[in-house]
Design goal:
Family: Belongs to the SMG9 family.
Shape: elongated
Keywords: Hydrolase, Nonsense-mediated mRNA decay
InterPro entries: P-loop_NTPase, SMG9
Structural class: alpha/beta
Order of helices and strands: HHHEEEEHHEEHHEHEEEHHEHHH
GO molecular function: hydrolase activity
Protein name: P-loop containing nucleoside triphosphate hydrolase
CATH architecture: 3-Layer(aba) Sandwich
Strand order of the largest sheet: 3-5-6-4-7-10-11
Length: 422
């Protein structure tokens, strides 16, 4: 039976005949079989191998904004594509790593309003995430020059609203609640409304129009608000300035001692790594002083009175800031005036040429020089941490909100208010 073979096998032996001839020649010995293709097949195999050596991978593009980040992308934030509407900090030209601080404040903002509510907006926009800052608070009676002194510390005249002739004629207070301002040197100034002020009490009565108001209860409420504001400044400030326009006021001393007793305990770390209650540096400032107030006898007497009144107090009244440390006026030194306490005397006006002729005190150097020396001593004062953890400006602001909330809800102030009403 004939069998047709492909054209490749024409003229050649058939595979079966080839196997029989091999068996006759080599016997039963098995030979290796080599399988090969013709030249065209080999070329096609080589081309396919070349194509497989350089594969082309097609990957569908993924949404890089919604997919989770790989560890490499977390370590290299530059690999993340930012949206066009994202916030980009302002940078100095030539230094891309340094971020500029916020613009300097142009005017004070409210921290606590006249309704005694804490304001979260305003000041928070000017705060930084850094721990090198100083908080200075100020309290005193109405018209003693608190706002003027805070403006002098900021080295910006009329920064805080000061008492004008219109305010004096109508017996109105300039500051309500607490105003805050941050200098370019990161000094946070807190200007408080006058304590025990009849003007504040009258404003509070006007807000409660239509309600039955007991005058004795209104006075007690005014005292409670003064105590709460004083306790707040004692808790969140490194330095508290107690401003007076004359030697001694018993109501100021009572407010300080009572607020020290009622304020909520705020723990901080001592040098021995022990948790103790925090108390600020208290500095007594006698503002609007005359030339006779700079005498050695007067300074010695004032220091003796304050030392006796705060002998058992935990408030820091001996921190080195004093008119009698010998650095301001050479005659006012510890040898002549005794151990210095935190007392600074500021003149009412500048020293004029006729002061010596008129028999006025010769040692008073003038208000501008006294303010400069007072600012220098404030900035050189070593400060203690407010809490057991280090606070930045932003965390300090959140801490202030918590402190004010705890003071308003404190049972000590409510109990004191109840006892005062009896």
């Amino acid at each position: 039976m004939s069998q047709d073979y492909p054209d490749d096998y024409k003229g050649k032996r058939s595979p079966v005949k080839k196997v029989k001839d091999d068996l006759k020649q080599f016997g039963s010995k098995r030979l290796p079989i080599v399988l090969a293709k013709h030249d065209g097949s080999i070329e096609r195999i080589q081309e396919s191998e070349k194509s497989h050596s350089q594969p082309t991978i097609l990957i569908k593009p993924r949404d890089t904004e919604n997919r989770p980040l790989s560890p490499t992308q977390k370590l290299n934030p530059q690999m993340i594509t930012k949206k066009e509407d994202s916030y980009t900090p302002v940078q100095k030209p030539g230094n891309e790593d340094q971020v500029l601080p916020p613009a300097e404040m142009k005017a004070p903002v409210k921290m606590i309003d006249d309704y005694m509510q804490f304001i979260n907006e305003g000041l928070s926009n000017s705060l930084l995430d850094q721990m090198d800052f100083l908080v200075i608070g100020c309290l005193g009676l109405q018209g003693v020059g608190k706002s003027t002194l805070m403006s002098d510390i900021a080295n910006k005249p009329n920064l805080f609203t000061t008492t004008s002739s219109e305010y004096l004629e109508t017996s109105q207070n300039c500051t309500s609640g607490i105003d805050a301002y941050i200098t370019k040197n990161r000094i946070i100034l807190l200007d408080c409304q006058p304590i025990l002020s009849s003007s504040v009490a009258y404003s509070a009565s006007q807000k409660r129009m239509g309600q039955s108001i007991d005058q004795s209860g209104l006075i007690i409420d005014n005292e409670i608000v003064s105590l709460q504001l004083t306790a707040f400044l004692m808790s969140v400030c490194h330095i508290v300035l107690v401003v007076q326009d004359w030697f001694f006021d018993s109501s100021i001393i009572k407010i300080l001692q009572t607020a020290e007793m009622l304020k909520p305990p705020m723990l901080t770390t001592h040098r021995n790594e022990e948790l103790v209650e925090y108390f600020p540096h208290i500095i007594f400032v006698q503002n609007k002083s005359f030339y006779s107030d700079f005498s050695i006898e007067n300074i010695k007497q004032i220091q003796h009175v304050y030392a006796q009144l705060f002998a058992r107090s935990r408030l820091l009244i001996q921190s080195g800031i004093s008119i009698a440390n010998g650095n301001v006026i050479s005659e006012l030194n510890p040898l002549n005036c005794g151990e210095p306490i935190n007392l600074f005397v500021l003149a009412n006006i500048e020293k004029d040429k006729n002061s010596e002729i008129n028999g006025l005190h010769k040692m008073q150097p003038g208000r501008s020089i006294l303010i400069q020396e007072f600012r220098k001593q404030l900035l050189s004062l070593p400060i203690s941490p407010l809490t057991h953890t280090q606070l930045t400006e932003r965390t300090w602001f959140h801490y202030c909100a918590k402190v004010w909330d705890s003071i308003k809800k404190s049972q000590f102030f409510n109990e004191y208010n109840r006892l005062q009403a009896l």
